[in-house]
Amino acid sequence: MVEFRVDRGGGLPAYLQLVQQAREALRLGWLRPGDKLPTVREVVATSGVNPNTVLKAYRELEFAGLVEARQGAGTFVKAALGSVEPEVMAELREQLGDWVRTARTAGLEDEDIHALVGVVLTGENNNG
Amino acid sequence: MVEFRVDRGGGLPAYLQLVQQAREALRLGWLRPGDKLPTVREVVATSGVNPNTVLKAYRELEFAGLVEARQGAGTFVKAALGSVEPEVMAELREQLGDWVRTARTAGLEDEDIHALVGVVLTGENNNG
Amino acid sequence: MVEFRVDRGGGLPAYLQLVQQAREALRLGWLRPGDKLPTVREVVATSGVNPNTVLKAYRELEFAGLVEARQGAGTFVKAALGSVEPEVMAELREQLGDWVRTARTAGLEDEDIHALVGVVLTGENNNG
Amino acid sequence: MVEFRVDRGGGLPAYLQLVQQAREALRLGWLRPGDKLPTVREVVATSGVNPNTVLKAYRELEFAGLVEARQGAGTFVKAALGSVEPEVMAELREQLGDWVRTARTAGLEDEDIHALVGVVLTGENNNG
DNA sequence: GTGGTCTAGACCACC
DNA sequence: GTGGTCTAGACCACT
């Protein structure tokens, strides 16, 4: 079961954090079509946000066609995001893990790594 | 000179995007102590946000001790973030570029990649 | 409940006056951890400044780690400043009151007294 | 000779700091009618502000009737502020010094002391 | 009804 | 022409 966490104080709206974490879980295959999302009450209990905030996030996911709320039953995953085979994903993950270890050894912090990934993905070139 | 871009509509507050981009530039060494940040008016011109939004971002950076605003002169970088040698950074970047190419070939989209990086960094293990 | 007042026309920015009054209240124990600050709207009503000015002051206090803004709930004192016992404080206050009376009898105005306190505190010696 | 100091970064306008320091010097008798204020150049050299800023402060003092600018000669004190005898002032200062020592021993910091003085002067009563 | 974000625009302090 | 302060007011996130 996916578990949500909310970090207050970072400026990022709580409901957005929930939406992004759900999307991430879908991306990585932690959530697959048919899976049940935690109930609003469970999310409230584990993350400390207001029920309405959770509802808003779930509504947003439903609007995006990713989940489906079934009255009295809960909220369920409707569509998948990404379709990479688990084995391929695992392989990529291992390779990335190696690289991350190298980067950390070189002195990069997590924030540096995120920044570098962003740059490489957008293909910006500030190598001069 | 660093150039800021603001993507409205993503829910992420404009001033936060500016703060993060500045931090990223510091992280990657694009901005070094003593460097001048674009003036408020320049950012307004290139990104389309309101001057006060830029001021708020700059103030946040100042609070964090990263930059220093000098009345009538501009805003300048005060402290560095991270101190990895450019050559090392370039090497890491190349390796990461290779991995990204592999990942994309396997069908991962940018969002998948970001999610995977996040997971690997936090060391979460949902393989089981 | 602490009540803020803003004196326009003294050149001192309104938001700074609010910050200083809050700090003063914390210093003197009028505000203690957990206490609720007046809402933005209340301050607006009692002091006549703009809501954004109050927000700026509250944000500054939050940056300083003194208060905590809880969305939809209000702004609350997080940390104490100084920790002198109320009785000790009262005793000191009484002694100071005596001295002030003497000083005023001698012809000193409030501004003189403030100046003299500043000098004594910084230990400057221009008796020369 | 009075020496001005300017503390940037406190939010308080530089020219106001100069004005207040001049007033304080007049209050405490460090500057007496006929005395010469430091030249603009000297202030610039010792405080690091812009000449125009000093000029603005001196203009303000002149407007208040406290000083007088004599072309080519400098700026001179015209009027006194406060008229307490030096011996009385010294006596008060000594008494205040005793009280300050007591307060500091009790754990009060300078900021607490300033706050307390402000409260006693305005006669506010929050003793409950 | 709470605080937070953003805008448009005026005016000030400073270089 | 630089950053800083403040206003008026709209709209959003959250309790």
TrEMBL record, chains A, B, C, D:
Residues 12-80 form the HTH gntR-type domain. It comes from the Bacteria. Gene3D superfamilies: Winged helix-like DNA-binding domain superfamily/Winged helix DNA-binding domain. This is HTH gntR-type domain-containing protein. GO terms for molecular function: DNA binding; DNA-binding transcription factor activity. CDD domains: WHTH_GntR (cd07377). Signal peptide: none annotated. It holds the Pfam family GntR. Keywords: DNA-binding, Transcription, Transcription regulation.
